[in-house]
Write a structure and sequence with these properties.
Threonyl-tRNA Synthetase, Chain A, domain 2; Rossmann fold; alpha/beta; 555 residues; Ubiquitin-like (UB roll); 21 strands; 5-stranded mixed beta sheet; 19% strand
C-alpha cells in the first residue's frame, strides 16, 4: 500500500483502489464478466465477505454462486430473508418457531409452528414479502457480541437451540447478522445486501413447505423440484429418532454428554440400527423369490458394514448369504471409459462388465456353478482364483455397489428376484433452528478420516476429489434412490463428536494457501461446536468403526 491506495492482483493483472474500498466495489470494477453472481472474494486465499474493506495490497479472486462457498452464502442469506419476511408478516404471536429441517433435491424443508398445514395463500404472502425485501436491497450488517450477551439475545427471541449451542463454545465473541432490526446467527458467511438473492420459490410440501433455491450448476435460475417421497419419509423418520432421544441439535448432544456421558446413548443408537437391520432381513425372508439383495448408496454411507450386519441377520433367519462386491466386475483398467474431462470414469456403469455380471447372475439363478471374479486393484485386471458359487434353496446374494439400484445393471434378472436397499447417512442432528447439517458434510468428514487411515490420503486430497465424487453420485446414484424397497439411515447421532478427534488434526494439516483451505476452515469451525467423545465406547460392529478403524468386519 502506498499513497492511500492498495494494489489488487487479479488474474495476472494489477489494479489500484483507494484504501477502504469495499470488496463489493472492488469486484464490480474488476475486468471481465461473471456468468454467476459474485457472493464473496478470496483475499490472499482467505474467504472474505463483500462488506469487508481493502486495507493492504492483496491477491484477489471472486467467489460466485457456482462455487461451493458462494452457493452456501446464497442459501444462508436466502434463509435469513425468508425468516425476516415471516416474522414481519406474522410476528412472534402467530409464529412460535420456524425450523429449517433438511435439504431435499433443490430445496430446504421448512416448518412454521403455529401454521400447520401451510397453505398456498400463506406462502404467496411470504413470497411477495421476500421479493419486496430483495428489491429494496437492504444492507445486511454484522456485529460481534460477547457470548453471554448473544445467548441472552437468543433467549429473548426464543431461539433456545442457539442458546444451548453456545453454552459449550470456547469463543468469547459471536457474530450476529442484522436485517432491519431482525437478528440471527448463521454458521458461515453471508451476503452483504438482500439484493444478492433474487432467485427462490416456496411450494407447500409435507405439512410445511419446500424453499426452492438455485443449484450450483445453475446459480441464476431455478430448476423444477423433483419430489422424493421415500427419501423424505426416511429423513422425517431420522428426525423423529432424534426427538425420541431428546437430541435434535448439537446443543442437546453436548448437554447429554456433560450430564450423562455417551455410553447409554451409544447403546440406544446401536440398538436402533440393529432393530432396523433385523426388520429389513425379515422383509427379505418373507418376500417370495428374492435371491439378490441389491445395496447402493453414496460415498461413505457405510455400505460394507451394513452388508455384513445384514448378512448376520439373514443367517439368523436360516438363509445363507453370500457377499458380492460389484467392484469385482470392473472392466480391466485399459478398457475403462473416459469422462467429459478425458479421465477414466470409474463411477460410470460402463466401467463394469454389465453383460458378464448378468450372465453370471442368470447362471446362478438357474442353479449352475459359476466361477466368481476378483478385481486386482494393483494390476487393474479381473482375476479368477478358483472361487466358485452355486445357489441352493436357502442361498441368497448380498450385492453391494453404487449401481445396485439401477435395473440396467441387472437387466436380465427378474424383478421379483431383487430386493433393493438404499443406504445413506441422513443425520438427524442440526446445528440449531436455522442451520441444518447437510448429509454431505457428515459423509465428507467420514471419508476424510477413513481415507487417511486406509489409503494414506491427506485431507486436502480427499476434499479436492469431493466435487468429482458428488458429480458421480448425482449421475449414478441419486436418480435411482426412489427405486429402493427400503431406505436405511446409517448415521449415528453421536458420531461427529467421535469423528472430531480424528478429523481435526487432518484438517489442521492443510496449508493456509492450499486450494482446499477454505473448506478445511469451514469444517474445523463446524467441528468446534461439538464436545469430543472417545471412540472407546463404540462397539466393534458399529458402522462408525468402518471409518475410525477397529471394526470386527473386513471393511
Amino acid at each position: 500500500m502506498k499513497n492511500g491506495t492498495c494494489k489488487v492482483d487479479f488474474q495476472g493483472k494489477s489494479l489500484e483502489f483507494p484504501y477502504g474500498t469495499s470488496y463489493r466495489d472492488v469486484a464490480a470494477a474488476l475486468p471481465g464478466e461473471n456468468p454467476a453472481p459474485v457472493m464473496a472474494v478470496l483475499v490472499n486465499g482467505r474467504l472474505q465477505e463483500l462488506r469487508e474493506k481493502l486495507k493492504d495490497d492483496v491477491t484477489l479472486s471472486l467467489v460466485t454462486g457456482a462455487d461451493s462457498a458462494g452457493h452456501k452464502i446464497y442459501v444462508r442469506t436466502a434463509i435469513f430473508i425468508m425468516l425476516k419476511a415471516i416474522y414481519d408478516l406474522y410476528g412472534k404471536k402467530e409464529v412460535s418457531r420456524t425450523y429449517v429441517h433438511f435439504s431435499l433435491d433443490n430445496g430446504l424443508y421448512i416448518t412454521v409452528e403455529g401454521r400447520e398445514p401451510v397453505s398456498e395463500e400463506y406462502l404467496c404472502a411470504i413470497r411477495e414479502k421476500m421479493r419486496e425485501i430483495v428489491a429494496e436491497d437492504h444492507p445486511i450488517t454484522k456485529r460481534s457480541l460477547k457470548t453471554q450477551e448473544a445467548r441472552e439475545l437468543f433467549r429473548y427471541h426464543g431461539m433456545y437451540e442457539k442458546d444451548k449451542l453456545f453454552q459449550c463454545r470456547r469463543s468469547s465473541w459471536v457474530n450476529i447478522y442484522s436485517l432491519k432490526n431482525f437478528d440471527d446467527y448463521y454458521y458461515g458467511y453471508m451476503a452483504d445486501t438482500t439484493g444478492a438473492i433474487p432467485v427462490f420459490d416456496l411450494i407447500p410440501y409435507g405439512g410445511g413447505f419446500m424453499f426452492l433455491l438455485p443449484r450450483r450448476s445453475s446459480p441464476d435460475r431455478l430448476e423444477a423440484f423433483r419430489p422424493r417421497e421415500k427419501l423424505f419419509r426416511s429423513l422425517m423418520e431420522s428426525e423423529n429418532w432424534g426427538r425420541d432421544l431428546n437430541i435434535a441439535a448439537i446443543g442437546d448432544l453436548n448437554n447429554r454428554i456433560i450430564n450423562e456421558g455417551v455410553e447409554k446413548l451409544v447403546l440406544v443408537q446401536e440398538a436402533l440400527h440393529e432393530g432396523r437391520i433385523s426388520a429389513i432381513a425379515r422383509q427379505i425372508k418373507e418376500r417370495e423369490g428374492v435371491k439378490f439383495v441389491m445395496i447402493a448408496g453414496p460415498s461413505s454411507s457405510g455400505k460394507t458394514t451394513f452388508s455384513h450386519r445384514l448378512s448376520i441377520q439373514l443367517t439368523a433367519l436360516g438363509l445363507r448369504p453370500h457377499p458380492i462386491a460389484l467392484d469385482d466386475y470392473f472392466l480391466n483398467r485399459e478398457d475403462t471409459p473416459l469422462d467429459e474431462y478425458g479421465e477414466k470414469d470409474y463411477e460410470s456403469i460402463r466401467a463394469l462388465d454389465v453383460e458378464g455380471f448378468n450372465r453370471d447372475m442368470t447362471a446362478l439363478l438357474e442353479g449352475k456353478e459359476v466361477a466368481m471374479p476378483t478385481f486386482n486393484f494393483v494390476t487393474g485386471k479381473r482375476e479368477y482364483k478358483g472361487n466358485t458359487l452355486c445357489l441352493g434353496e436357502e442361498d441368497i446374494l448380498v450385492i453391494e455397489g453404487i449401481h445396485g439400484l439401477n435395473d440396467e445393471l441387472s437387466h436380465a434378472l427378474p424383478l421379483e428376484s431383487k430386493f433393493k436397499i438404499y443406504i445413506s447417512a441422513l443425520t438427524s442432528l442440526n446445528v440449531d433452528e436455522h442451520n441444518w447439517i447437510p448429509t454431505t458434510d457428515l459423509r465428507l468428514i467420514r471419508r476424510i478420516v477413513r481415507d487417511a487411515r486406509t489409503r494414506g490420503n491427506t485431507a486436502a486430497q480427499t476434499i479436492a476429489r469431493w466435487d468429482s465424487v458428488r458429480r458421480g453420485e448425482e449421475k449414478n446414484i441419486f436418480p435411482y434412490q426412489e427405486e429402493a424397497d427400503v431406505f436405511f439411515n446409517s448415521s449415528l447421532v453421536y458420531e461427529l463428536a467421535v469423528l472430531k478427534i480424528s478429523a481435526e488434526p487432518l484438517l489442521f494439516g492443510i496449508e493456509d494457501d492450499a486450494s482446499t483451505a477454505v473448506e478445511a476452515r469451514r469444517l474445523l469451525k463446524f467441528l468446534d461446536y461439538f464436545l469430543a467423545v472417545s471412540e472407546s465406547a463404540i462397539p466393534n460392529n458399529s458402522i462408525l468403526k468402518e471409518f475410525i478403524g477397529g471394526s470386527c468386519f473386513e471393511v
